[in-house]
């Protein structure tokens, strides 16, 4: 009886093992036929038997499950997460190569799905997928950086702060090698997506002079964003502490110094802003943007002439700096209001008429002084907002030319206004 009993148990075990393998084979068969939905449905039946599977069958099951949930062009985050977890269980097994390739495919699928979410402004979903992509690979910290950026865009500042702090702890800089070559046809240096592509273009002789450059560090931007998030939470002390810690670790990082200056500007501590900006200029004296920013700071302080001087320095370094030309013209025109108010308060006496004529002459002098800068601003206006800004400038100049009695210029600017309006 005892021998017979043992035989029955052994037979039952053999049937159980056969059933397990049969369930796994069914999943594999569905995958091979491209029936990933069916394969996912079959996973449940096999998973119920996992407790009694031997290691070999269990590994085959996890591979089949991972492939079933990965599918083809799958953008479902929950499915991709299941696939990644299943592939992860196969590391250091005979399926290690399949596991690494599978996780790479999961990461690519996550990134593609995140890009779609980002394009439809579904920033929270994009952030989650990008963070998952980083956690699955633990290689490319740029995914975590973009996850933080999407959280900021989605106004989920707590999550953004978590990711930014994580990047800081990892020592992330975001510095990349960028590849360039000069296009033979246009003689312009252009950025090429990869070294391989650039080298092929040079080999094909459509491009020459291959060069490589390093991108700017993202540490300053991250430190600034951490500080701004703390500021939005009303924690200015923590904001400045975060910036100070970042600068202490990277004393030569100019972007961090500039970011600290911007934090003081946001806090409206303009004297401190100016002090740090002078430190920045000492390190980068030929950067027009720095002088432009100082002009903005002086304008906020009400120091009109100092602001104009900084803007003029900016355009001397960059003769195409439209925003700086615009701000010079706007500051000059700002003097008009006081003159107009004074003109409106005059009476009807001969003395008042004489004073009116002098004020009118002074007002026209302001127009004549501002017009060249506004013309330069219009001439150099570019970018996405260029058309709207050009229309605004053209209307302002049209009014100025009318006031100055310059019919020729007024007519030309009126035609410019009509053309710009027609393009909107």
Major beta-sheet overview:
3 strands, antiparallel
Order of helices and strands: HHHHHHHHEEHEHHHHHHHHHHH
Overall geometry comes to elongated
Overall mean pLDDT: 85
- Report, as a whole number of angstroms, the end-to-end distance: 95 Å
Low-confidence stretches: 1-16
Strand order of the largest sheet: 2-1-3
Written account of the structure:
The chain is mainly alpha-helical and 424 residues long. It has a domain at 177-214. Helices cover 74% and strands 5% of the residues. The protein contains 20 helices and three strands. The chain has helices spanning 2-32, 36-47, 55-70, 77-88, 96-119, 123-137, 142-153, 157-169, 195-203, 219-232, 236-249, 254-266, 270-283, 288-301, 304-317, 322-333, 336-344, 350-379, 386-404, 407-422, and strands spanning 177-183, 188-192, 207-214. A three-stranded antiparallel β-sheet has the order 2-1-3, with helices on one face. The longest helix is centred in the N-terminal third of the chain and has 31 residues, at 2-32. It is elongated and about 110 Å long.
């Amino acid at each position: 009886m005892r021998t017979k009993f043992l035989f029955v148990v052994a037979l039952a075990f053999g049937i159980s093992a056969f059933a397990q393998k049969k369930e796994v084979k069914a999943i594999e068969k569905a995958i091979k036929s491209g029936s990933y939905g069916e394969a996912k449905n079959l996973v449940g039946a096999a998973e119920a038997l996992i407790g009694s599977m031997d290691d070999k069958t269990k590994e085959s099951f996890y591979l089949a499950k991972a492939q079933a949930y990965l599918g083809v062009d799958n953008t479902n985050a929950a499915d991709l997460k299941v696939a990644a977890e299943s592939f992860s269980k196969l590391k250091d097994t005979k399926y290690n190569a399949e596991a690494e390739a599978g996780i790479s495919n999961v990461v690519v699928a996550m990134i593609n799905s995140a890009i779609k979410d980002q394009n439809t402004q579904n920033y929270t979903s994009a952030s989650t997928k990008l963070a998952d992509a980083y956690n699955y690979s633990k290689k490319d910290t740029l995914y975590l950086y973009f996850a933080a950026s999407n959280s900021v865009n989605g106004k989920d500042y707590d999550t953004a702060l978590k990711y930014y702090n994580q990047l800081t702890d990892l020592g992330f800089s975001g510095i990349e090698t960028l590849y360039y070559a000069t296009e033979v046809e246009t003689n312009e240096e252009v950025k090429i997506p990869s070294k391989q592509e650039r080298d092929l273009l040079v080999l094909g002789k459509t491009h020459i002079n291959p060069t490589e450059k390093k991108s700017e560090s993202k540490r300053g931007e991250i430190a600034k964003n951490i500080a701004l998030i703390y500021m939005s939470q009303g924690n200015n002390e923590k904001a400045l502490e975060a910036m100070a810690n970042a600068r202490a670790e990277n004393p030569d990082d100019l972007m961090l110094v500039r970011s600290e200056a911007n934090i003081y500007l946001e806090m409206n501590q303009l004297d401190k802003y100016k002090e740090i900006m002078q430190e920045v200029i000492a390190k980068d004296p030929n950067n027009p943007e720095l002088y432009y920013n100082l002009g903005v700071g002086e304008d906020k302080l009400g120091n009109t002439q100092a602001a104009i001087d900084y803007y003029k320095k900016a355009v001397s370094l960059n003769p195409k700096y439209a925003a700086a030309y615009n701000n010079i013209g706007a500051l000059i025109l700002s003097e008009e209001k006081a003159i107009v108010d004074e003109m409106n308060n005059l009476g009807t006496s001969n003395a008042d008429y004489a004073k009116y004529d002098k004020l009118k002459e002074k007002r026209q002098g302001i127009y004549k002084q501002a017009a060249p800068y506004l013309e330069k601003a219009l001439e150099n206006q570019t970018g996405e907002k260029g058309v709207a800004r050009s229309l605004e400038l053209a209307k302002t100049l049209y009014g100025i030319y009318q006031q100055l009695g310059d019919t020729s210029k007024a007519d030309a600017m009126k035609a410019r206004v009509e053309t710009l309006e027609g393009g909107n």
